[in-house]
Model the fold of this input.
Amino acid sequence: MFTQFGATSESLSKASTMMFRIGTDAHLYDDPDDVSIVPLLDSKFDSEKCEALKRLLALIAQGFDVSSYFPQVVKNVASQSLEVKKLVYLYLLHYAEKRPNEALLSINYFQKDLGDLNPLVRAWALRTMAGIRLHVIAPIILVAVGKCARDPSVYVRKCAANALPKLHDLRLEEHSASIEEIVGILLNDNSPGVVGAAAAAFASICPNNLSLIGRHYKRLCETLPDVEEWGQIVLVGILLRYAVAKHGLVEGSIMISSRSLVKYNSEREDLEPCLARKENPDDISSEICSEIADVVSRSYLEGPEKYLSQLSCMDKNPSSMDISHFTSSKSNDDVKILLQCTSPLLWSHNSAVVLAAAGVHWIMAPKEDIKKIVKPLLFLLRSSNASKYVVLCNIQVFAKAMPSLFVPHFEDFFVSSLDSYQVKALKLEILSSIATCSSISAIFLEFQDYIRDQDRRFAADTVAAIGLCSQRLPDVAKTCLEGLLALALSESSNGDFASADEEAVLVQAINSIKTIIKQDPPSHEKVIVYLVRSLDSIWAPAARAMIIWMVGEYNNVGGVIPKILPTLFKYLAGRFTLEAVETKLQILNACTKVLLRAKGEDLSILRKIVGYLFELAKCDFSYDVRDRARILKNLLSHRIGSPYLEEVKDQPEIEDLAHVLTESIFGGQTKPPSCEPLSYRFYLPGSLSQIVLHAAPGYEPLPEPHSLIYDESCNISTDVQGIKTSGVGVAHNEPNENDDSEAVSGSSDEENTSDYSSQESMSGSSESGGSGSASDVNDNAGPLIHLSDADLTHRNRVEVSEENDASGSNGVDELMSKRDLESWLDENPGLNQNSLDLGHVQRSLARISIKDFGGLVKPKSYTLLDPANGNGLSVDYTFSSEVSSISPLLVCLHVSFRNCSKEPMSDILLFEEESNRSPDSSDQSVSESSPVSRSEVPTLVPMEEIANLEPGHTLKRILQVRFQHHLLHLKLVLGCNGRKHLVKLRPDIGYFVKPLPMDIEEFSNKESHLPGMFEYIRRCTFTDHISELNDKYESSLVKDNFLLICEKMALKMLSNANLFLVSVDMPVACQP
Amino acid sequence: MLHCIFLLSDSGEVMLEKQLTGHQVDRSICVWFWDQIISQGDSLKLVPVIASPTHYLFQVVREGITFLACTQVEMPPLMAIEFLSRVADVLTDYLGSLNEDLIKDNFVIVYELLDEMIDNGFPLTTEPNILREMIAPPNIVSKVLSVVTGNVSNMSNTLPGATSSCVPWRKTDLKHASNEVYVDLVEEMDAIINRDGALVKCEIYGEVQVNSQLSGLPDLTLSFANPSILNDMRFHPCVRLRPWEANQILSFVPPDGEFKLMSYRVKKLKSTPIYVKPQLSSDSGTCRISVLVGIRNDPGKSIDSITVQFRLPPCVLSADLSANHGAVNILADKTCSWSIGRIPKDKAPSMSGTMALETGLQRLNVFPSFQVSFRIMGVALSGLQIDKLDLKNLPSRPYKGFRALTRAGEFEVRS
Done:
């Protein structure tokens, strides 16, 4: 009966589906091309056109290319029927870029529609027209957008705001100023809906032009609650950036970690009594995890590259933030209003808005006010499964940096069996970081349930979390240990046929036991004995290996373990051949350690066993085991007394050596677990980068606090930023070069603006002649410019070519060969549109060429050693563009040593710091420099020692250095008078670039290949400059203008590794 | 900025693609995505943000339909996820429900909606009420018309007035013959009961759902008798936040039709209306299971649609389960569901049976957890009470209706 009913219901549902399908567009989707479409498109009737267009849409939906119908479709743009229009627009937007010429045909109709009385028609026309990505019509669109930005209809203005990013996306630099102007107009709109869209446009067009926000800041804050939800998300982020850039960080917020606070307090205690009161040491340490908070705040402020470069020197000089960067949320109105206006957003029903608002409070609010964000954040967990994961990822960071926030809410992180594995793992991690003495019992009760969960991976994670908890709260270590032991026992009991997942739990349990024991080995002796006894039942090789490691490590702890050793090793020796490789290796290690410590009659027994084990290992299948056995045997020869090594025995000093070696390798007590290195990165809350854990293209950290200053230069600086961001944007269109550009951007900001001039000495076109000349730039500026009358206009040439190589050392080789350059040139398809434009522009411009610029510019000098630190020895260095004779990977440095003290100095030598190799190389793995080149080229070519340096004298040396990474410091040791000073060489990215000799023709030939890649044409008029030029003099003002341009270019260039050639076109107006 | 949206069927077929910016995203990304899904199993389906070699993908899965959005640049991931959920909501609203056929049949509407909802990768109009005015939902009349006359447009010719008003969620000139407003409290109870039978967590997630059929531009004020019990809340954009901050009063101009006025949470409840007591004991390769269900605290109204669901542990080979009330079903994916319905007066429902374990396994080492669902009409278990609803600015006296409902949310009993 049931089956029958089932059948009927099925057929019923089928019938009903059929019914439902009648009257829909189903047939169009199923057989879109069963009639010929072209005649339908040409039909007189709108309904037929509609059908044809729907068929085309169906084909698009199914992934067919129907661009061949373009001409017929475009005609229909003139249709009066809105439905036809809409469908045409949909089609047009999909294919406009493919068929630019035909798309141009529609422009007239759009312009007509823009004048339509119906705002809907105007809006659609604008949206579609802006969506047609053609450079030719960009000016028309710009005019249209400008008009629509003042449209009476809110909807049209909103569409105008949305059209701006499309226009900006075409990367026509000459329009960017007017685009930004329209953004400003729209931001000032009195309809909140428009403001939201304008904020989105701002964020994608000129996110760094914060002065634009400054004008409307108060009003934007006030309208924030009324802005539609999507706009709120973006606007909140912009306002946060502005507040940080304008007013700096808030005193007492998470961003100012307790560490710098302490420092600040000790310096200025008397001035800020209220702060000192707040800064009650134990109070804060319980409240926030200062170390992580420090890293969090640091990484919010700094880009990934800068962060990486600082990582190496982080612990030595903690970034001492200037106190002037702090502001107070109480006294500063702007910050106050921001916090006030974002707090209602925490009640929004859009989870993205809540998270964005929470992010503002997290960064800007004083610590005691952050509590506010906790409940809304936790409530988000109930919204949807997809957002749950994202929210948890963010909560995880908050909880790590400030566990106290979430401590009372631990119940919210209890795992439900419906959660996905990722969510479960996140919840576990949060739980283990917020557990406190009061909540731990409840959490452990939960954990006990999780261990029996069906998902064994999750169960294993739970066991690991127990280990973490006991590390954080040593009080519960004993309870944990008991629980884990019981677990290990029960797991091992049914371990005979356990799958890999099953084993994971056991292995993790032993691992957690290990970490607990590590903290206090003597008191846990019994546990080790217990584990050893259960070795028989524990089968997982990884678990066995860990137990054996523990035995070896703690073989002389307590009174029982040494007694059981002989028996244990007899057992192990008997089973040796049956063990897995992993376990075998640990057995060999353990017996070495044991043998080192053994005394009395145990020694002789152990010696025999170990000898036997080595013999067994010698015949093992695995060469790892064989090798290990061989090494250990040699090292232990003095303890074993092997007959095979008699010749060694004859030489007691070698034996001693072996003994010392063994002692230092195996005898050394393992250090107590030091705080784990904070290698993970944090990104701004709510960002995509935080979820994927790498900086996504376009990710920007918070702006430098107090970087926004109002003065006349404001406009210029924002211009620079405008270029920079657009440059980065372009880089992202080229996925294969993404990494390079990211690696460079950010680091360049600081260093290279200051000494751009010195970098030009490297330019490929000019001779890389002797630098180091100390002549003043301004005095010699005249001859720099070579004027040559080409035609009516002065045709001057400035060629600043820069082969910018970002990918580090291996890229240099690439550049050295011309063939590579050739192929590289061919690889980059040019945007013809752009190059045409350029050609057009160039005709009316003059080109100025700066020759021998480098030789005349005083290179920027860095201090290597301060006389204060170096007992009167002052060491400075400058980079030079000389090419090293040894290897192109080496960078030449001029180092000048000056004795500022009264005493003569002797034996001055710079050499590499040996002990520092290991951390360096770990950094290496992060960076992308190739290991091959590292092995070939030395880091430092040995310097000629300075035997004696008289007081007041200065000596110069040329140093050839190979930087491991173009952002990381190179640590060197400076020996002087027998004392050693640690010094750091800062790399300068410009000097990784090597000149490539080529003659003028070749150069211009190459250059002609270049146009069309990424070109930015910026125009500016320097009236001062022109008038001075006619006098054939260069005043300092003019020079500044030049440098300004060059600096801009440098910024842009270095922020974007794709850019290899910069030519500066200077407009030179003829004086009548 | 989103670059592209794909709609995928549950077999991985791309049903629709909508390119949002000039940077066209190739369909091959979907192939890559589906390969990942296949190779990594369903667990990936639950990861909302995936970094593919070329793009970042956001996914929201509803009723087997995968809404996949791609971007290449940094953007708030929750924004993408919220937007995709909103698209899914709007489509469900338009098409009645969501499935492959419905989307294919109405692909033109889906395209039109997507085009209206997002512009250049940034959400444009997502308010369902306005969308309904711009693009008419398919209904029987239009279908019949289209059959009879050949074609009928579902596009509105004019811009909805609401886009320019200060209450963008409401049509400007609404007329209803009968003025009615219904306020429903819909609550879901989340609870975790651990192995010892102790209530670890019990809380209520509730929503105030309003169905308003009011003419003109009414101004409503809703107040609760005991707002202090509310722990967290979120509001529809129409709610004015100042009155809530000051007096905990909900003051709003409602959108037309059904909407979620607010959602709230009440934490730390002390008891659940029903109890579920599972017992498992295993020995020598078989496992005995028995589950008892009964009423613990009578809420005063009848509890119905009670079901108990659990997943048999992977080490169980076969199970033989029977119940003294209701039906027990074991599905192919080892999910066992016991639908009880109402609890009879005379006996306590119980289910018992044996399960055979894998050969070699003596005892059960992993234990299932039981998901319980139930429904109680007429009661809001959180105890939240609506005090009064005032309506202003209305031409005629409206009809006001209040209802309450509690059902189980994530109600989980561990064994």
